[in-house]
Amino acid sequence: MPKTLPAVEKPVKIGARVPQRFFLNYCTYGYTMPWWGWREWEHFIDWMALNGINLPLAITGQESIWYQVWTELGLTDEEVRSYFTGPAHLPWHRMLNIDRWGGPLPTSWLDGQQDLQQQIVERERELNMKPVLPAFAGHVPPELSRIYPDAKIERMSDWAGFALEDYPWFLDPEDPLFPVIQKKFLEKEVEIYGTDHIYGIDIFNEMIPKSWEPDYLGRVSKGVYESLAAADPKAVWLQMTWLFYNERKYWFENDSDERVKAFLTSYPAENSILLDYYCERMEVWRKTQSYYGIPFIWCYLGNFGGNTFLAGNIKEVSDLIEGAFAEAGPSFQGLGSTLEGFDCNPFMYQFVFEKAWNMPQHQDLNTWSVALSQMRTGVNNPEARAAWKELFDEIYIQRSVPGHSPIMNLRPSFQRSTSYHSSIRFNYENEKLREVIEHLLAAEGEGSSYEFDLVNLTRQYLSNQFEQRFADYKTAYEAGDAEKMAELKDEMLATFDTLDELLASQDYFLVGKWIADARNWGADDAESDYFESNARNLLTSWGDRGNLLTDYADRSWAGLVKTYYKPRWEMFFEAVDEAVAAGEKLEGERFDTLLEAMKDHEYNWWTERPGDFPSKPQGDPITLVRRIMSCQ
Predict the structure, then answer these.
(1) Tell me: the pLDDT tens digits for 62-81?
(2) Burial class of 459 by CB neighbour count within 10 A (0 to 12, 13 to 18, 19+)
(3) pLDDT digits (tens, 9 = 90+) for 473-508
(4) Contact yes or no for 303/553 (Cβ under 8 A)
(5) Which residues have a Cβ under 8 Å from the Cβ of 52 and sit 6 or more positions away?
(6) Among 235, 256, 233, 232, residue whose Cα is nearest residue 244
(7) 534 within 8 A of 287, measured Cβ to Cβ
(8) Number of C-beta neighbours around residue 446 at 10 A
(9) C-alpha pair distances (Å), 206 with each of 243, 250, 292
């Protein structure tokens, strides 16, 4: 930003192309925002206002409301706080995926989050936003059966390999207790946080209903809506439609939309808003006759797990959005983003929200890339423009997918990926990315965005280069070329150190800041240690040792690279050398032994909390990038 903003000589009014602009994802509250305080939230809310967002998801502090509801219904303090997960895992507790894991939640957390949510919704309303608050989705503590033995409470299905004791419990919406709890929760929530009458409820997210019969699905959704309307006659039910993508083989069985239609049309369309959640991959509105006339918001997801990976199909996204404007009809009511994590490809989200406004000059991608080049480099010259044109044309050409990660961040293996979610593909020549970095260096830009982009692009360049070296290492291994293997091993291990030093120059890429922010929530040292372990776990094992989601939230962050990812590769290279020396391959029992050792390392990293990591940036990013590129 310039020190003095340019004067606006006369009012400028630009109309919106759609009335709703939605932002956030339940998962963002785990992968990016769990440790935020008011300083971060105030800055972020201002950013949303400046990008025209008027419908933000606002789910902070709901556990304090639930605590009051459940204890007033007769559950004990220990039962309720143990029902909640650890703070970073709360999004998946809220989405009816897991209970208990990482709990019990400290009382200080419940109180602090309630205070924070009051500040959040007050500020959002000051800026003419309508916060989307949570409501009751049927998720209950199992101990509720002790108080209501006749209630229809059932254990839900497995999710992500968590243990049976972590499975969630669901109260049938047709049970007479359902509207009682809905009313009780909303009354307390409205008393403490106010309301704009828009509530997020998602009842079958990544879960299997007890029946796929359309009649049952319709009865369930109708029951949920009626409980909501009874508690707030002005209520609008907002729900994500991720389930229709993620479980599409069930919802669209035999290419029929009968189940989807029964579920969505059992209550009034005017009291519903749907989030078409992952439109860059699958536009559900096209499979459902524009959601049968129900208002919906076209959403760009763009990031899974907070993964640090260059991804964004900008031209395709532009065409898809314009296709919705041209073809979706009157039920198309808004644009939004449902990203799981921030701080890797920020301009993609700015681009999506600019599409919501009548600014014809910004609809042309070439014009937009020129404007963006000046905005992010702080200069207006041919080198800056060339860099951003190449980014648009050559690099940002693929959509984000779950597990989009550099191979450096995954458990190493020759035979197979040992991470449940992993995708290391990039659809461009790495030399193209090098050209972009060289253009940016030649542009001699200035400012924090310029520095961030240089580090972010160089981070990806080094990660891609590592993958190419590993492919050569595998070839040398198969050919029995020990000398070449040793040379490549040294180069790959050195890349971890180089990358860690580079990442340490940016706030956004510091695991030390993530940990320090988590510890700040502790009322004493014991609580701070608890929050730190929870913060470390989400980025690594995600749950217990060897969890299916291990590395789902992997990211190239200083501290994490050197003390978590690098040791796994050192263990791998040592195991390879031992196998080769014995005249064997790294497979079978040998690989299984290595895998167990890597799981031990992962577990120890978040339980024993090794390493003291800087929470503030170190080093000059431009100097570091110049040095790195001169050595390549």
Answers:
(1) 999 999 999 999 999 999 99
(2) buried
(3) 999 999 999 999 999 999 999 999 999 999 999 999
(4) no
(5) 16, 21, 353, 356, 357
(6) 256
(7) no
(8) 12
(9) 6, 11, 23
